[in-house]
Design a protein that fits this description.
The chain has helices at residues 14-26, 44-49, 94-109, 124-130; strands spanning 4-8, 54-60, 63-73, 77-85, 113-119, 134-140, 145-152. The protein has 162 residues and is an alpha+beta fold. It has a domain at 4-113: Aminopeptidase. Strands 1-2-3-4-5-7-6 form a seven-stranded mixed β-sheet. It starts with a strand and ends in a 10-residue tail after the last strand. The structure holds coenzyme A. Coenzyme A is lined by residues 24-25, 29, 83-85, 90-96, 118, 122-124, 126-127.
C-alpha cells in the first residue's frame, strides 16, 4: 500500500466522508455478522461548520479511504463515532490509527477522557478493548446491545480553543 496520511477533514471532503461511511457500514467485519446503518443528519454541513463535529480522515494517495468523527462533550471529554474504513483497506491498522489520531488531539488539547459506544453483536467491544477502551455500561435493546466504553487520557494540559 502506498503512503497513508491522516488529517482533519475540510468542508469539501464531506461528500466523500459520507460516501465511504455509508459503504463501510454496509459491509460487516465478518461474514453474516450484524450490520448497523449509518444515519446522516440532513444538516451535516452546518454541524461541521459550527465545529460541533470534527472529522479525521485517512488518505491513501490523497484518496480518502477511512474516517472517524468526534465531538466535544462536557467534562473535558471527547466522543468518538462513525469509525469507517473501506473494505479493501481493512486490516491495515487504518481504523486503529484513526482512533489514535483522536487520542493525540485529546492529549494536545487537554481532554481527559474519550467515550464511544458500539454494538456488541458486531464484536466491536473486542476491537476497542485492544485499543485500551474499557466497558462502562451495556444497554440491552430488542435486537442488539449497545456497549458504552471509555479510555482515560493522561497528560492533562490547558484546553486551547479550536
Ligand atoms: C471496524 C473497522 C473500522 C475496523 O477497521 P480496520 O482498519 O480494518 O481495523 P484495524 O486494521 O485497525 O484492526 C484490525 C484488527 O481488528 C480486528 N477487527 C476489525 N473489525 C473488528 C470487529 N468489528 N470486531 C472485532 N475485531 C475486529 C481485525 O480482525 C484485526 O485483528 P488482528 O489485530 O487480530 O489482526 C472496519 O471494519 C469498518 O469500517 N467496519 C464497518 C463500520 C463499523 O462497524 N464501524 C464501527 C462503528 S463503532
Amino acid at each position: 500500500m502506498n503512503s497513508i496520511s491522516f488529517r482533519h477533514a475540510k468542508l469539501n471532503d464531506l461528500t466523500r466522508v459520507k460516501y465511504i461511511t455509508k459503504l463501510a457500514y454496509k459491509i460487516s467485519y465478518k461474514e453474516n455478522s450484524f450490520i448497523t446503518r449509518s444515519h446522516e443528519p440532513n444538516n451535516l454541513k452546518d454541524i461541521f461548520l459550527s465545529k460541533k463535529l470534527f472529522i479525521i480522515v485517512a488518505a491513501v494517495d490523497k484518496k480518502i479511504v477511512g474516517a472517524v468523527r468526534y465531538k466535544i462533550l462536557e467534562k473535558n471529554s471527547l466522543y468518538i463515532y462513525k469509525l469507517a474504513v473501506l473494505k479493501t483497506y481493512r486490516n491495515k491498522r487504518i481504523g486503529e490509527s484513526l482512533i489514535k489520531q483522536i487520542e493525540v488531539v485529546a492529549k494536545k488539547k487537554g481532554f481527559t477522557k474519550i467515550l464511544l459506544d458500539c454494538a456488541q453483536e458486531k464484536q466491536l467491544p473486542e476491537y476497542y478493548k485492544k485499543l485500551g477502551y474499557k466497558i462502562d455500561i451495556v444497554k440491552k435493546h430488542q435486537d442488539h446491545h449497545d456497549v458504552y466504553m471509555s479510555k482515560k487520557i493522561l497528560n492533562k494540559i490547558k484546553i486551547n480553543s479550536f
